[in-house]
Design the sequence.
C-alpha cells in the first residue's frame, strides 16, 4: 500500500486517496502513508514551509500573508529583489501545499489551516530532523512545564499558552537556540531581565499578541537578533 501511495502524482487520484485517509481518522497506524505526501514535495522550500506549520497549534488558522512573513523571516523563502517578489514566491509555495492537500484554504483563500492528523505528521518529521521543542497550545502556565531546555535546542514554539510571567529563576542555557516563538500568550506581561542571558544565538523572537509592558534589558545583548516581532503589543514601551 505504501508503495502504491508513493507512486501517485499530484492529480485527482492522489487528492482523493489523501482525503479518504483523513476522513477515516485512522491515526498513527497510517502515519507512513501520510509521510508519502510529504516525500512528493519536490522542492526544499516546500518541505520546509510544510514543516514550519508544525510550530503552530492544532487547527490554527493563519492568514496567508502572516505565514509567508514567518517563512521569509526564517529564510525558508529565499531573498528576492523585493519584498513583493518574496510574497509572490510565498503564495506560490502555499498554493503548492494546497494542491497537495497538505494545507486547506479558508476564509475565501485569505488564510490556511492544517488537518490535525497532517500536523501530527509534520511535528513527528520536524522532531526527527531538528532539535525542536513544540509546546504550542499546551495550556502551559509557566515555562517549567515546557520540559527540558536542552543545550542543543534550535527552535522553541510556545505559541498560544497561558504563561503570565517568566521569572528570574528561569534562564535557559541554550546557546544554539535561534528561534523563540511566544505569541498569543495573551496574559504574558513580564519577562525577567535575566531570561535572555544565555540565549546568545537567538535570531528570531516573537512576542506578538501579548500584554508585555517592557522588553527585558538582556534583549540588548542579543547581538545576532535580526527579527523582533511585537505585533499587537499595545502596552509595550521601549
Sequence:
Amino acid at each position: 500500500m505504501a508503495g502504491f501511495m508513493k507512486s501517485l502524482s499530484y492529480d485527482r487520484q492522489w487528492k482523493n486517496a489523501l482525503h479518504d485517509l483523513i476522513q477515516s481518522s485512522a491515526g498513527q497506524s497510517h502515519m507512513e502513508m501520510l509521510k508519502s505526501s510529504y516525500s512528493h514535495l519536490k522542492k526544499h522550500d516546500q518541505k520546509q514551509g510544510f514543516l514550519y506549520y508544525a510550530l503552530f497549534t492544532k487547527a490554527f488558522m493563519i492568514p496567508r500573508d502572516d505565514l509567508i512573513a514567518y517563512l521569509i523571516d526564517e529564510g525558508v523563502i529565499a531573498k528576492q529583489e523585493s519584498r513583493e517578489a518574496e510574497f509572490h514566491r510565498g503564495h506560490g509555495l502555499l498554493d503548492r501545499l494546497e494542491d497537495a492537500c497538505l494545507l486547506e484554504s479558508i476564509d475565501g483563500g485569505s488564510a490556511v489551516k492544517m488537518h490535525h492528523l497532517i500536523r501530527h505528521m509534520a511535528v513527528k518529521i520536524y522532531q526527527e530532523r531538528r532539535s525542536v521543542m513544540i509546546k504550542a497550545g499546551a495550556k502551559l502556565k509557566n515555562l517549567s512545564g515546557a520540559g527540558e531546555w536542552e543545550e542543543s535546542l534550535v527552535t522553541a514554539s510556545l505559541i498560544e499558552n497561558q504563561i503570565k510571567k517568566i521569572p528570574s529563576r528561569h534562564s535557559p542555557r541554550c546557546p544554539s537556540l535561534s528561534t523563540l516563538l511566544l505569541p498569543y500568550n495573551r496574559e504574558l506581561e513580564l519577562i525577567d531581565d535575566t531570561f535572555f542571558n544565555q540565549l546568545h544565538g537567538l535570531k528570531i523572537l516573537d512576542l506578538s499578541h501579548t500584554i508585555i509592558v517592557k522588553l527585558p534589558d538582556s534583549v540588548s545583548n542579543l547581538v545576532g537578533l535580526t527579527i523582533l516581532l511585537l505585533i499587537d503589543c499595545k502596552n509595550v514601551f521601549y
User: Anything to note?
Assistant: The longest strand covers residues 104-106. The helical segments are 2-7, 12-23, 31-39, 44-52, 64-73, 83-99, 116-129. The chain has a mean pLDDT of 87.
